[in-house]
Write a structure and sequence with these properties.
Number of helices of chain C: 12
Order of helices and strands of chain A: EEEHEEHEHHHHEHEHEEHHHHEEH
Radius of gyration of chain A: 21 Å
Shape of chain C: flat
Shape of chain A: globular
Number of strands of chain A: 12
Oligomer: heterotrimer
Strand order of the largest sheet of chain A: 6-7-8-3-9-10-12-11
Order of helices and strands of chain C: HHHHHHHHHHHH
Largest sheet of chain C: none
Number of strands of chain C: 0
Distance between the termini of chain C: 8 Å
Radius of gyration of chain C: 24 Å
Structural class of chain C: mainly alpha
Chains: A alpha/beta (329), B mainly alpha (304), C mainly alpha (310)
Distance between the termini of chain A: 37 Å
Helix content of chain C: over 70%
Structural class of chain A: alpha/beta
Chain lengths: 329, 304, 310
């Protein structure tokens, strides 16, 4: 299985008034051809910044300061901006959370799709428009030839997201990064859009990184899942393994807090405490202050030293409980 | 010269943004003063303005000569030790005239802005507090005033009242009024809708009391900011009017009036033009820098 | 769209009416002594009373004010702007060609202001925080602090006196337009630059700019094809004001450079207390301003696809 993307030790930091904030702190990821990797975390976990870092769209005061992002045999972090521009939209593309806000309000949507073909494939205006209309049809927009002349504010949220997906997959990229693509949409439309994403990705052979905070979405779409907490990956597993047998205490707590059909509990299990602010990370494991397992197993090492990613069945977990016993003592 | 109508729309456009809300300055007045003190360019502006105020107050003691005294024997002398800025076409010392000119500058900025603010606040409060018809009427009046380009308004008033320093002050004041009126109306309306005014009303406070205790202090911030735009404009306008012969008349040592015949001296006696001209320029720079600093301090969100 | 235009035109009517009233007020409020002062030198004491009565009759000053107003509006509607008090010539003749001159100056200045202002504003916004931005902002501050008439004198000093490239006084040909247009244009470029910068910064921080970059389009395309049109819309909203400022500034610049436009005439007329001319010029200028704003509003409604023109 060939890896489309391999990320090692990605670090992105922000210069704020209160000092340097490391939002992405040593993230390792890999995505294989045609697979869907889910990137899950709460808001503030750094997942969106990770997504932006992969495509190098982090703007000041943020800066990518370390790591390697291997794509197509090249480290994206070493490319010039010019080379990066050529890759974006063509080999790597991105879909954002707010579909209507991601479209230029004063240009017709057909033209906005067409320019991808004009710039990356050198097509003429007319030929590009033909492609654009065809694409609109394939993402399920009715009367695509007429809708192509519409302006973004004339579309519904769902339609706008279909347009974004059309643009993202127009040139059949190897990798699509989808940052919370359905979060801003009506629940009824969410399933449709996800299905559309999966179908098209399968047709074009595009691998996808799906960033979300919604475990339900992950369950429906992902092949593998990476769980992020406080700027780090804490667990990476195949999706069925994750849901059947979560390793990391954070993942366990997340799953426990999800309302499930047929649930007979009368209280949702919320995770006590909150994500540590980026400037004030605890020594040792970042999740330790909120970890129920630590107390249950009477662990002392969690407060003192940070775990690395240890091998577990079907994946990795950043937890002392997953470490071989000899290391723990 | 930026006589683009009133600073109204550009400044007011910022007020359409709900981000800039009426309210007391962040942390209270003392904190605000402290921030002002640290502002870099504000210090330069403040320094210039203080220099001007100093000159205005102590003019009789620091000016080497009588600004009005003619000395035909010494006409058009280039800058020298005796006359650091040179002399003009009637032999008057330019340095002294520039120093005395600071008095007119202060007069203009305070009086004109005062007229504009007073009238504007009155109209604005009237429109906001009066019934629908008062509001409509006052705002129609304001709209009509704003339908004239700024300078035209000035010229119209001068045409009616005749050219003189006083009428120039009044003209500038009147021309700046509509901007204040709109601002005051807008801010008053937004404060009035806010919850603490509702609370006060529930507690039985009368309209007048609400106005003075709550509304005025809360619109103070935006008002000060707007005044900081208006003052440099007022100084500019008054100088322009004098330059055109429609404001302060010679032989008053007002900087604009000193430039009336200037073109003929440009080649041979440039200092006659340079002295008053740069005085106006630096005075306005000072006011603008101070205004910028005030704005940064009172409402950092307005800074981009 | 036509409905919108009609509605907008209708809104203009009360404003025009207001302008008419204000300019009418100008005549009504001018104390009769002013009128007398114009004639006092030419008649002897005993004939004075007669002369005064004749003048009052001629200018309808003896009728009640509302009657005067109606007469005034009627005259204006017919294109009769009265006679110059000083020269007794029809005002229309005197201000006709001057009006054109002023418009030429205003237009030329607008072109200069837009070219300089837009380019510096875009550069400032794109390289926000760098030395380019700081320098541009600094020059911008100088621009809004500089009195236009002084700037004109400075330019005259350098280009006409020192370098002798351009004539000092307007000789009637296009060369005489350069300095005045530059003076006014460069000064007005300062506020344009500031607003463009603010507008562009806002646009560039929008989500869709990030999305456009994610499509791998070159920066020049992002800035000029996508960001700029959005920013220009915001600038269009205040374009009317800027033109008003130019129009007003032109009045003063005309005096500095001896450019024979209505501004120069208005200033002289006020000095002469020739109120008919003053009144007419103000009427014409204010009306022009209102019309320009009308056109700009319509232009904006057409240009921004988000506006619903019901």
């Amino acid at each position: 299985m060939t890896a489309v993307l391999q990320v090692k030790g990605l670090r992105t930091q922000f210069a704020t008034d209160s000092g340097l904030v490391v939002a992405v702190d040593g993230v390792d990821l890999s995505v294989n051809e045609g697979e869907v990797l889910g990137l899950v975390g709460e808001s503030g976990s750094g997942k969106t910044i990770t997504a932006l870092s992969l495509i190098r769209l982090v703007s000041a005061p943020g800066r990518i300061v370390g790591g390697r992002v291997m794509f197509d045999g090249k480290d994206l972090l070493t490319l010039t901006e010019r080379e990066m521009v050529r890759l974006r939209g063509d080999r790597i593309s991105m879909v954002f959370q707010q579909p209507k806000a991601s479209l230029n309000p004063v240009r017709r949507i057909g033209a906005q799709i067409a320019e991808l073909f004009e710039y990356h494939r050198g097509l003429s205006c007319r030929a590009a428009m033909v492609q654009a209309v065809d694409l609109l049809g394939r993402v399920g927009i009715p009367a695509p030839d007429r809708k192509a002349l519409a302006y973004p504010h004339e579309l519904s949220g769902g339609q706008a997201q279909r347009v974004m997906i059309a643009m993202a997959l127009a040139l059949k990229p190897r990798l699509l990064i989808a940052d919370e693509p359905t979060t801003a949409l009506d629940v009824t439309i969410q399933a449709q859009i996800l299905e559309l994403l999966l179908d098209l990705c399968r047709d074009t052979g595009t691998a996808m990184i799906l960033v979300t905070h919604d475990l339900g979405v992950i369950a429906q779409t992902a092949d593998r899942v990476a769980v992020m907490y406080a700027g780090r990956i804490v667990e990476e597993r195949a999706v069925t393994d994750l849901f059947d047998d979560p390793c990391h205490p954070y993942t366990r707590a997340l799953l426990a807090s999800m309302p499930v059909q047929g649930d007979v509990r009368d209280r949702l299990g919320a995770i006590p405490g909150s994500v540590p602010p980026p400037g004030r990370m605890p020594l040792g494991c970042r999740f330790a202050p909120r970890c129920a397992e630590r107390i249950r197993h009477a662990m002392t090492i969690c407060d003192r030293e940070e775990p690395v990613l240890y091998r577990v069945a079907g994946g990795l977990s950043r937890c002392w409980l997953a470490a071989p016993a000899v290391v723990r003592s | 010269m930026n006589l683009d109508a009133n600073p109204a729309p550009a400044a007011l456009a910022a007020y359409d943004d709900p981000g800039i809300v009426a309210g007391p300055p962040r942390g209270g007045f003392r904190a605000m003063l402290r921030r002002l003190w640290r502002h870099r360019s504000g210090k330069i502006g403040g320094g210039l303005v203080l220099l001007i105020i100093f000159c205005a107050i102590f003019a009789p003691w620091i000016a080497p000569y009588d600004p009005l005294k003619l000395a035909m024997l010494d006409r058009l002398q280039p800058p020298s030790l005796a006359h650091p800025f040179g002399t003009d076409e009637l032999g008057r010392d330019l340095l002294s005239r520039v120093i005395y000119g600071t008095r007119y500058m202060i007069l203009v900025s305070v009086v004109s802005t005062g007229i504009a603010a007073t009238g504007g606040i009155f109209l604005g409060l009237l429109a906001a507090a009066g019934g629908r018809w008062t509001d409509l009427l006052v705002m129609r009046l304001v709209d009509i005033m704003l339908a004239f380009p700024y300078i035209l308004l000035l010229l119209a008033v001068i045409a009616i009242l005749g050219p003189s320093l006083i009428t120039a002050l009044v003209a500038v004041g009147i021309a700046a009024m509509p901007g204040f009126a709109r601002l005051v109306r807008g801010e008053t309306l937004s404060v009035r809708e806010s919850e603490y005014v509702e609370a006060m009303r529930v507690l039985g406070a009368g309209t007048l009391r609400i106005t003075f205790r709550t509304i005025l202090p809360n619109i103070a911030s935006p008002l000060i900011i707007y005044a900081s735009y208006t003052m440099p404009l007022a100084v500019l306008s008054a100088a322009a009017l004098s330059f055109l012969g429609l404001g302060a008349q010679p032989p008053l040592p007002e900087w604009g009036a000193m430039l009336v015949q200037s073109r003929s001296f440009l080649r041979t006696s440039t200092w006659v033009v340079a002295a008053p001209g740069f005085a106006i320029f630096f005075a306005i720079i000072g006011l603008n820098l101070l205004g910028n600093a005030l704005r940064d301090v009172l409402d950092p969100k307005a800074r981009t | 769209m036509t409905a919108y235009i009609a509605r907008r035109l209708a809104m203009t009517i009360p404003v025009l009416f207001g302008i008419l009233f204000v300019t009418f007020l100008m005549k009504a409020l001018i104390p009769t002594d002013a009128v007398l002062a114009l004639y006092s030198g030419t008649v002897s004491e005993d004939k004075a009373a007669e002369a005064i009565a004749a003048i009052r009759a001629k200018y309808d000053l003896d009728k009640p004010w509302y009657h005067q107003f109606v007469l005034y509006v009627g005259d204006v509607a017919r294109g009769d702007l009265g006679e110059s008090v000083r020269t007794r010539q029809p005002v229309i003749d005197e201000i006709g060609y001057r009006y054109v001159n002023t418009m030429i100056l205003t237009l030329a200045s607008l072109v200069v202001a837009l070219i300089v202002g837009l380019s510096t504003g875009i550069a400032s916004a794109y390289w926000k925080g760098t030395w380019i931005d700081e320098v541009a902002m600094g020059i911008g501050l100088l621009g809004i602090s500089m009195p236009a008439f002084f700037f004109g004198l400075i330019l005259i000093f350098f280009f006409s006196v020192q370098l002798r490239w351009l004539p000092v006084m307007n000789a009637g040909d296009w060369k005489g337009l350069i300095l005045p247009a530059l003076t006014l244009g460069l000064i007005e470029a300062a506020p344009i630059s500031r607003i463009t910068r603010a507008s562009m910064i806002e646009v560039l921080s929008q989500d869709y700019v990030k999305a456009i970059r994610a499509k791998g389009l070159p920066e020049s395309h992002v800035v000029f094809r996508h960001a700029l049109p959005n920013a220009l819309l915001s600038i269009l909203t205040i374009l009317g004001l800027l033109i008003g400022g130019l129009l007003g500034g032109a009045f003063i610049i005309e005096v500095v450079f001896g450019w024979r436009g209505i501004g120069e005439l208005a200033v002289k007329a006020i000095g002469w207390r020739d109120f008919t001319i003053t009144q007419a010029i103000i009427l014409v200028s204010a009306t022009t301003y209102v019309m320009i704003n009308l056109v700009i509003d319509i232009l904006y409604a057409w240009a921004d696809p988000r506006i619903k023109l019901g």
